Amino acid sequence: MTLKDPYDRPVTNLRISLTPACNLRCIYCHAEGESSPGGLLSTAELAEIMRVAAGFGIRSVKFTGGEPTLREDLAGIIASVPAGMECSMTTNGTLLAGIADDLRRAGLSRVNVSIDSLNPETYRRISGCDMLGEVLEGIEAALEAGLTPVKLNMVVLQGINDHEVEDFIRFVKGNRNLILQVIELMEFRGCDHHQGLAGLEQRLAERSREIVTRRMHHRKKYCLDGSEVEVVRPLHNTEFCAFCNRLRVTSDGKLKPCLLRADNHVDVRGLSGEAMEAAFREAVQRRAPFYR
């Protein structure tokens, strides 16, 4: 049975924050919309959430944070993903080089790596840490481990890294296992470097040999000469919300129907079986497009 919200949007994707902790201090981080998280969910609690999700036809799960690789039990969490459910992860990549093979053996399919600059000084300005080298090593390790396609998440910041989009396009060129994902800045922490991406999308469209509309959020993937670029524009975008298929889980055990809201959560800590199923149904009924 597939769950649908009151706007007839099916929920097929689960996004689970494993921890609010992070070893970087990015100037724009929205922390998955968490404001004051409590204790972390255990591996067993996460396994029950995913088991119930699979029963409702949810076909994929993405682990996020904070930084999920800070959890020592990450491989065990991945190994608890139900059979047939695709498992991916978003990471800053700084710790990935040493564990990529282990995560692949545990069942991880692919990774998104957040990397906002290829310039060490700019990377340090954005992230607060001098770890670009470690991130690049993590990307290479992910490719070698087969955690592909590796998507590079670049948040565009006006006046800081907006001139690097072409550098990133060249970075992924010629490697079909690398995809660039250019992301519009979300206004969570008062970061005043918002850069609209409509102009960029128009330029990419003019250069593309093919444009693919993805099912998730109806966003576009631009196939250039040897490079693939996806553009994520969540702000003031009714189409983005209209095609949202995600249900989020906070690190302290709440179902979160919308990234941009914190007033409609459903607490699932300590629930199992029919009680957990009822909580899923309630959370999906609380889903509504933020932009309409």
Give an account of the 3D structure.
- The model has no long low-confidence stretch (mean pLDDT 94).
- Helix 1 crosses helix 9.
- The chain has a single domain, classed as TIM Barrel, CATH 3.20.20.70.
- Strand 8 (220-223) and strand 9 form a beta hairpin.
- By secondary structure, it is an alpha/beta fold.
- Helix content is 29%, strand content 20%.
- The protein has helices at residues 43-55, 74-79, 100-106, 120-127, 132-145, 165-172, 198-207, 238-242, 273-285; strands at 13-17, 60-64, 86-91, 110-114, 150-156, 178-184, 210-213, 220-223, 228-232, 246-249, 254-256, 266-267.
- It has a twelve-stranded mixed sheet with strand order 7-8-9-6-5-4-3-2-1-10-11-12, with helices on one face.
- The protein has nine helices and twelve strands.
